[in-house]
Amino acid sequence: MESTPKTKKANRCAFENCNARVVKIIGDCRYCQQKFCGAHRLPETHICPNLATCKQASFEKNSNKLLNEKCVKLKV
């Protein structure tokens, strides 16, 4: 039983000129919906086309966390 070229390509990293195997679960980019190997799994390393969206989401998440943990001086 031979695998079709489409199936074989689906198991490879989507980064240009990379033929490494895709990493399950953590290799899926939630911003561009492509599959990558361990070396290219981060949006910064595979030059994600939706990197601005990724950065904005991270900024908002961090901003909300910091505001919720803010210490307020008691007024006596």
UniProtKB/TrEMBL annotation:
Domain of life of the native organism: Eukaryota
Family matches, as Gene3D superfamilies: AN1-like Zinc finger
InterPro entries named in the record: AN1-like_Znf, Znf_AN1
Domain AN1-type: 7-56
SUPFAM superfamilies according to UniProt: AN1-like Zinc finger
GO molecular function, one term: zinc ion binding
Keyword hit for Nucleotidyltransferase: no
Pfam family, any one: zf-AN1
Record key words, sorted: Metal-binding, Zinc, Zinc-finger
Full protein name: Nuclear protein
Annotated organism of origin: Anaeromyces robustus
Highest classification ranks of the organism: Eukaryota, Fungi, Fungi incertae sedis, Chytridiomycota, Chytridiomycota incertae sedis
